Amino acid sequence: MIVPGRGPHTPQVITLIGGGGKTGLMFLWARSLKEQGFSVVTTSTTKLCNESRPGFSFAQPVNLAAAKMLLTLPQRTNEFFTLTGESLPAVGKLSGIPADWVDQLSREFPDTIFLVEGDGSAGRSVKGHLPYEPVIPACTSLLIPIVGLDILGKAMNAENVHRPEVFGEITGVTPGDPIDTAAIIAILLHAKGYLQQAPKTITIIPFLNKMETLPLWRAGFALAQQLLAAKHPQISSILAGSVHHDCFVNFS
């Protein structure tokens, strides 16, 4: 699979935003990075599903000092921990940690890679962001905005889109109309879209996920070329493929 690896420009803080596979990609990358010998911590600045995953355990430090202590402990050979806030049993989730914790932890543990989930999408493949979203730590060096391409052709409504009213305002798609590639480009590149909180100096690699049929692979290839042709100053490559099948292609 394609994953950030060891080298002179290895990103230390990678934040994943959008919809359609953030959590799956975060844990997949964590495993791959650990196999390469990196120290890896997964975390979130937003609510995170409390579903357990083999080899991962949740750690809920009560303050920043406790989080620092956790990172000084030797990690078990085959297990990771995910830093979270308190449990939210009413919604079956865990709260995130403050973004400035990630900033401080990354400074004090420069040999650790932090994988951060920066927003939620309620299980939808695309979303519209509120003005304060996503919550991207200032120390982020690589931002991964994610779209699930299984959304193509589906109706623009609350069943398919998280915050459809915001998505519609940005993309021009009216309720009930099918979502096309133009809408995906708009939500990714519009000033009020996925990148509205992105620092101007970081690298951005959009990920087109859920390309699990031949028509979606074709659509994904075409969409990747269109995104590159837009010449966004922070985007020089596109990642496309399927987290579910651990299959990825990089376009640049």
Features:
252 residues; Rossmann fold; three-stranded antiparallel beta sheet
Layout of helices and strands, plus pairs?
Blueprint: E1 13-18, H1 22-35, E2 39-44, E3 48-49, E4 56-59, H2 64-72, E5 80-83, E6 87-88, E7 93-94, H3 99-108, E8 112-117, E9 126-127, E10 142-148, E11 161-162, H4 164-171, H5 181-189, E12 203-204, E13 207-209, H6 214-229, E14 238-242, E15 247-251
Parallel strand pairs: 1-8, 1-10, 2-5, 2-8, 4-5, 9-11, 10-12, 10-13, 13-14
Antiparallel strand pairs: 3-7, 6-7, 14-15
Description:
Strands 1, 2, 4, 5, 8, 10, 12, 13, 14 and 15 form a ten-stranded mixed beta sheet that branches. Helix content is 26%, strand content 23%. The protein is built from six helices and 15 strands. The protein has one domain: Rossmann fold, CATH 3.40.50. The longest helix is centred in the C-terminal third of the chain and has 16 residues. It has 252 residues and is α/β, with parallel strands linked by helices.
The biggest beta sheet, please? 10 strands, mixed
> Could you name the ranges where pLDDT drops below 50 across 5 or more consecutive residues?
none
Q: Helices and strands, in N-to-C order?
A: EHEEEHEEEHEEEEHHEEHEE
Distance between the termini: 16 Å
Main CATH class:
Alpha Beta
Counting DSSP E segments of at least 2 residues, the number of strands comes to: 15
- Based on CA atoms alone, the radius of gyration comes out at 18 Å
What structural class do you assign from the helix and strand content? alpha/beta
CATH architecture: 3-Layer(aba) Sandwich
What count of structural domains?
A: 1
Give average pLDDT, whole number.
Answer: 92
Helix content: 25-40%
CATH topology: Rossmann fold
Shape: globular
Please report which band the strand proportion falls in: under 5%, 5-15%, 15-25%, 25-35%, 35-45% or over 45%: 15-25%
Please, how many helices?
6
